[in-house]
Amino acid sequence: MTDITKEIEKRRTFAIISHPDAGKTTLTEKFLLYGGAINLAGSVKGKATARHAVSDWMEIEKERGISVTSSVLQFNYDGFCINILDTPGHQDFSEDTYRTLMAADSAVMVIDASKGVEAQTRKLFKVCVMRHIPIFTFINKLDRDANDTFELLDEIEKELGIATCPINWPIGSGKNFKGVYDRNTRKVTIYTDTEKGTKEGTATEIDVDSPELEAFIGMENKEQLMEEIELLDGASAEFDQDMVNIGELSPVFFGSALTNFGVEIFLRNFLDMTSSPLPRKSDAGEVDPMTNDFSAFVFKIQANMNKAHRDRIAFMRICSGEFDAGMEVFHVQGNKKLRLSQPQQMMAQERHIVDHAYAGDIIGVFDPGIFSIGDTICAPGQKFQYEGIPTFAPEHFARVRQVDTMKRKQFVKGISQIAQEGAIQIFQEFNTGMEEIIVGVVGVLQFEVLKYRLQNEYNVEIILENLPYEHIRWIENKEIDLDMLTGTSDMKKIKDLKGNPLLLWVNSWSIGMTLDRNKGLVLSEFGR
Ligand code: G4P
Prior knowledge:
InterPro entries: EF-G-like_DII, EFG_III/V, G_TR_CS, P-loop_NTPase, PrfC, RF3_C, RF3_dom_3_sf, RF3_GTP-bd. Belongs to the TRAFAC class translation factor GTPase superfamily. Classic translation factor GTPase family. PrfC subfamily. Its main location: cytoplasm. It is found in: Cytoplasm. 27% of the residues lie in helices and 30% in strands. By secondary structure, the protein is an alpha+beta fold. The protein folds into 3 domains: 230 residues, P-loop containing nucleotide triphosphate hydrolases (Rossmann fold); 99 residues, Translation factors (Elongation Factor Tu (Ef-tu), domain 3, Beta Barrel), CATH 2.40.30.10; 129 residues, Peptide chain release factor 3, domain III (Alpha-Beta Plaits, 2-Layer Sandwich). The strands form 8 sheets. An 8-stranded antiparallel sheet has the order 28-25-27-26-30-31-29-32, with helices on one face. Strands 2-3-1-4-5-11-6 form a 7-stranded mixed sheet, with helices on both faces. Strand 7 and strand 8 form a beta hairpin. Helix 12 crosses helix 13. The longest helix is centred in the middle third of the chain and has 17 residues. The structure holds guanosine-5',3'-tetraphosphate. Guanosine-5',3'-tetraphosphate (G4P) binds next to helix 2.
């Protein structure tokens, strides 16, 4: 095995998805604790950014431009090199989250045991399914009163359409939380509220058949556990690694991130059940991550809100080979050889310049405005493109008007650059000959951001007029004659910057009606 192969084999790159408040930050923190990357929990940043109000966003964003804390955390644990991709919790940044998932090899879904599947999880889950990546479930907050375990699993299966396989099983919840039972080893780990923020704590493990168990968990709990084990063994899906690999079966774990219970059990199993970076599709076939040749794609661009230097950081996921700071690379979409400047990486909390990075890693490079989301970078002499990153359906729309029409050039430049970063999407009326621009965003906060940035960075004042549309679909079969398409009274025909036709509706039921009225029409929630 070469050194490069060794490095790549120990990489695990994943994202944690959850509805805000389910415990993603807390779980991440505990992972870092095990990796020895931080000494005390409570120091993971990025939480503040997820929780701000509109008013303080600009200040935060200014900081965000300089520090890249909320992008990726790398640490070592038990011979593995782990990259956790941070997904912003605030729903207004969900588009960034979607893209981040494109860079992950697997996902961990954190669910609050008293809430079950929530809106944001549902949305993010869809993206994981689209990519067929393995999805692991951590059901959190067992130290609080939880919903019935069978019902929780049932909900995941029904709502998300994925089979579940509990690897362990909780005994009670809330004040009556006694521990978890490992179905493989048939041992019960007794719940201890570890000293907050540390990884200490004495884990007591008892064989499920041992007479001692009752003393720890009580007779009633024991009886219930035995019944549930029997039920489970008869009813639940068996563990099947192949099904896990294609994202059709989710291994489920129970615990409490806050009290650090069940976290290490989860981490160990997760690392065993996930793989190192796998080949990725490109227009020249699958690219083997273990080759010596470097390749990567851009999945996120972060603008520097500092007016004095309007630079950006492009985050790329390395898909194959080794990256060396001094090396020359080829930017496929720009058709240019270049050197990536100031490549940086996050090691736990600290940002540092990287000399070497490998397939599975994420690096952030200084972007003078040449990269777009989805761009491929590879070794000179090669020329292939990774599959593009789909555009996700915006949910809010507004018509944009300039206050001073003389500043058309700056306006177009500004709005195009901001769209290139992926914060907003721009559309035009279809066939009306009007130059008016319609902006679509995933979260309404982005409207404020657009206004602020156009004013501050491009000196252009705009008026946004909200439109009532909420549903958008790309037309997949482009041969359809848009003029002939019969829609509903609340439908609008538009096109994106590439000229792709799209439809907008106010009401969701109109989508079905439009499909009924136009036989053969194929619609998609994602644009390419
Ligand atoms: P998020 O990143 O998914 O948004 O969630 P985060 O980890 O910030 O957790 C949200 C809240 O839930 C926090 O409380 C956190 O302490 C709590 N929490 C996380 N895991 C557990 C758990 O296993 N059990 C219990 N009981 N609580 C948990 P907060 O009061 O909102 O914040 P803080 O003041 O504790 O920081």
